[in-house]
Amino acid sequence: MKAVTENCYVNLPLRYIYNTPEYLDLFIENSIQPELGLDCLGSECLSKDWLLTIRDRLAAAGLKCTTHLPFLDLKPSSLNPAIRQASIDTLCGAFELAKIFSPERMVMHPSFTSWLEPPLFEEAYENCLDGIRSLSDSWPDHPMLCLENTYEYDPGPLLQLVEDLDRENIGICFDVGHWHSFSKGSEKNDFDFWFDSLAPYIRHMHLHDNMGRKDDHLALGEGCIKWEHIIQRVKELNPLPSITLEPHTRDDFESSLRYFREKIAPKLF
């Protein structure tokens, strides 16, 4: 179960470390670089001393990290001013936490409401655009901030968002599992359309599997995503994006690492 490659990570929410400290031991012992999830459901895992301890342990092991900004109950595009402001405030606070870890990448959900009709969608879009600008302005030289596809029906809004932001340190995190399930990619078989649309801005990717009906976060190879074709397309990107595996159970964690090492990494790197 040893490390995969230098530019690859595996998701590890801070609350997992807080509730089960052995998870951090597992990553360090096996030289696995984490994508630290900053969604804490309370303040118990936000002690600065505790966070510094995690940072120091990763540094001592020579491990880099990425961070995933909070997303639960957050909506920077909200048409409700109080919800929108609370979301931006929470994300700005997460930026401060991320500084502790000097992450290689930061991932954020823009959280569009795709079903909104004009002019409400345009208003929500502008809210999201303004919110991300203010977030980025709070740390002007921040690491690459990668905006992740979630529930979008097509890649257009996410692509437009990155182009309108027009900042060198803002790109896209292409989540293959979300495309396959939330965006009905399993039915539409439109990976190439999504990939070609987003390719100029893809800086990071999330890999996990599902059967197309829901966001299962299965181990790679346990669903019906056509990984061979996807990896062939990813190889076209220069530079290659960083990659995070996103299993949600211990068994899927081990299976995903094995699948990645044996069937993806040799073709990609």
TrEMBL record:
<keyword id="KW-0413">Isomerase</keyword>
<feature type="domain" description="Xylose isomerase-like TIM barrel">
    <location>
        <begin position="46"/>
        <end position="262"/>
    </location>
</feature>
<dbReference type="Pfam" id="PF01261">
    <property type="entry name" value="AP_endonuc_2"/>
</dbReference>
<dbReference type="GO" id="GO:0016853">
    <property type="term" value="F:isomerase activity"/>
</dbReference>
<dbReference type="InterPro" id="IPR013022">
    <property type="entry name" value="Xyl_isomerase-like_TIM-brl"/>
</dbReference>
<dbReference type="InterPro" id="IPR050312">
    <property type="entry name" value="IolE/XylAMocC-like"/>
</dbReference>
<dbReference type="InterPro" id="IPR036237">
    <property type="entry name" value="Xyl_isomerase-like_sf"/>
</dbReference>
<protein>
    <submittedName>
        <fullName>Sugar phosphate isomerase/epimerase</fullName>
    </submittedName>
</protein>
